[in-house]
Design goal:
Number of domains: 1
Helix content: 40-55%
Number of helices: 3
Number of strands: 0
Radius of gyration: 18 Å
Distance between the termini: 74 Å
Shape: extended
Structural class: mainly alpha
Length: 104
Amino acid sequence: MKRAPPDRRAQASRAALNALRRARRAADKAGVPLSDWEGDFLGSVAERVQAYGRAFADPEKGAPGAALSSRQGVKLKEIVAKAKGKVRPGPRRRTPLGKSADPD
């Protein structure tokens, strides 16, 4: 008996909801206080994924079968890194050609 092919959208939404739960659980377990914005972000994204199967409406902001936009995925990774105690470095400044990085 053949099984039907898996529903990619349902898989993506389940994976996103699990990732959101893991992020919140990791922050609670580590005792890292999330900012108000981060808590609201996790809650509102989870609500939208449960209600609509994805957390963004504009198809240009993410892959067609993805539940989170690319920017939401980046923010989720930043929250997980904060919960694990690994602070992600900010963007690096590039020095012009011929200039050294040292101000001396």
